[in-house]
What we know:
With 705 residues, the protein is mostly beta strands.
Amino acid sequence: MRGEPRASPGVEEEEDTYPRFQFSLRSRIVAMQALLLGVLLISANMGIIRRGDAEPQKVRITLAGTVAVDLAVISLCLLAVVVVALGALGTSTRRILAMVVLASVLAVSLVLIHWQSRQPSKGLAASLEPLQIAAQVAEACNLTLTIVSKGYQGNLSINESVVVAPLGALTYEFEGPATWHISAGEKAVVSYKVRFSGDNLTEPAAVQFGMAVYGNPQTEDAFAVPTNAVNITIKPIPKPRNLDVLWSLDLAGIGLVQASGGPSVADIDADGHNEILIGYRKPIRADWSPEIIGENRLLCATDSGSVKWIFPPLSQPGFDFAVNFLGQPRAISNPTIADLDGDGRLEVLIGRRGGALHCLSSDGQELWSFSRDEALGFVSLEYLNDDEKKLTMSFNGTLGSVDTPQLYDNDRDGEYEIYLASGPPDNERLIDWGRVSCLDARGRLLWNVELDGLPSQPLVWDIDQDGSGEIVVTLSSNYVVCLDASNGVELWRRLIIAADWYLQSTPIAADVDKDGRYEILIGSNDGNFYVLSEAGQVEWSFKTPLSAGKLQYSPPVGDIDGDSNLETSFCDDRYVYCIDLYTRQQEWVFQPAKPDDSNNYNTFADVTGDGKVDVLVVSPFLYVLSNRGQIQAIFDTPKVHHNYWAQSGTWSGDLNNDGNVEILVKLSGEALCCLATGAPYDESTMPWPKMDRDPMNRPVVPIGR
C-alpha cells in the first residue's frame, strides 16, 4: 500500500515496545516525580545558601567547605534528573537501574542537606531585637543581638550588616563590637547601633535589616549563623519650625535688660502655681570698662509673666556691679531653692558677686545675709603686676565674689549646710587666692578654708559613697581640689592643665563607665573635657577637634538617645559637640549660624513631644536640636541679631500646669520669653532641664536614678 513502510530484505524487525516520544503512564509519573524532586532539592539547597550567606549581594565563596557541599548536592540532584529521564526511555532493566540510582541519590542528598542544615549553626542561635523600629534619618536605631551557644566555644564575629530590602536613597552606618568570645552554654547579649542617612528622603522608607554571626572567623572552618530580619521605618527629618511666644516680660523700662545665669522655677509659696526666679543686671558698655558700675536684682515672676516681686525692691539701691580681671561681669548667682531648715517652707539663696549671700522668704523678704560684715580675718597677698613687679594687696578677708551656693545635709540632721566658694574683691587682678566656707541653715559660719586659687562653683556630694560628703572645686591655679565636707580638710588635689590656661568649669559627678562609682567631669579653657576618677586621677579626656575654644561652666549630662549610656553636650567658640561618655566617642557636631564663645548654656529636655531628649543650645539664638544634632526648632528675633552674646540659659518643663512643655529663655537684648511647644510633659525625658540641672543647682547624676 502506498505510504506504508516496508521492511528491508534480510533484516528481522524488532518489536518497539516503547516507541520514541511515547511513554507509558507509569514512566511519565516517574519522570515527573524525578523532575519535581530535583527542583525541590535544588530549591531547598539554594535556600540554605541564601540563609547562610552573610550578605546576599555577594557570592559566598569564602566558606570553602560549605560551598563544596552545596555543589555536591546540586550535582547529585541534576544527575538524578538525567538518569531518571534516560531510564524512562529504555528497557525495564534500565528503568529499575535508574530507580535504584534515584533512590541512592535521594538518600545521599537528604543526608547531605540534613548535615548541612545542622553544620553551620554548630549549636549557635542568633536573634535580633526589637522586631519593629521607627526612627528619623541619622537617628540611632538601637539593636540587641542575642547569641545562645549550646556547644560551640570560640571566637565570633560579624563582618557587616545585611540589608535585605533595597536601600534606595538611604545609606547606613553600623556601630558595635566586631568580634567577641563565647563559651559553651553561654548567652551573649551585644548592643549595636545603625543609623540611616538620606538628604533627599521626603517620605518614610521601609527597610529590613539583619545580621550574620560568624563562628571560627578567618579559618577554613568558618560558618555563618543568620539572624531574623528587623523591620525599620526611616522617617525624614521635619523642617525646623519657629517656636511661638506664649508671653514675654520686658523690664527695660526699669533698667533690667541683661540676665545673669538662667531661670529657675518652683512653687515657692505653695499656692499651686510656679514662680520664676532669674537674676538681672543693668546694661553695661560693650567693652566691659572696669569703671562702669551698675546694679543687680533678682526677679520673681508668675507663671503668666507678671512681676511678683523684685529684690532688692526698686525703692532701694540694687546690688553693686563691676567687672573682674577676666573682663566678666560680676553680678548675682543663679538662685538656689530649697527648704533649708526643714520647716516645710522653701527659701531662696542668692550669692551676690559683690560679696554677700542672701536668704529670702517666698515673698521676697530677706531672712538673713552673710556679707562683708562677717569678718573672716585680714588677708595680705603678694602678686605680680603687668610689669612683673611684686606688689602686696591687703584687704579684710571677707567674701569678694560669691558663686552659686550649694546645699548638702552632711550631718544628717534634717537641715542643709550651705557651701560657698568665694574669691578676692572685685576689680582686682588675678591672684591665686580663694575660700570655701560652710554655713548652717541660718547663715552662721561653721568653718572656712583658704585655697591657692580662685575657686569655681563647688560640687558637694558623697563622691566616694562612704556616707560623708566631699567638696570638689576647680582653681584658677589649674588644680582640682577635694575637701572633706565636714571640716574643709583637703583630701586630694590634682594639677590638670598647663599654666597658660585656667580652669573655670563647675565639676559634675556621674557614673559614666557604669562601674558603680562616680567620675568627676570638668571642662577646661585649653579645649579639653576631662574625666577624673573619684580619687582625682585623669581617666581620659576629649579634645575638641575643630577648634581650641574654652569650655566653661557645667554642661548637661544624661542619656539622650536611649542606649543607657550617658552623653554630654558642650560649646566651644565655634561648635556644639555631643560626646558619648561611655564609648568616649564624638556622637555629632553642630555649628551655629553665629557662634558665641562666652558661655555654655546647653540643656537636655524633650520639648518636641516625640519621647526623645532634645538638646537646647543658646549660641546666641535658641536652637532645639535632636539627639542626633539636627535642628528641630529655632527661636530668633531681630534684636538677638544685634547681640552676639549668649547671656542666659533655658528652663524647660510644665510651667503653668497645663500638661504641656514650655521653654523659658532670656536672649541677649530680648525680653524674658515663655515659648509654647505643644509637646506633652514627661519628667522622665527631662534629664537636665536647666543650668545646673535642678532648683538646688546640683550638677550630679545620682547613681541608680
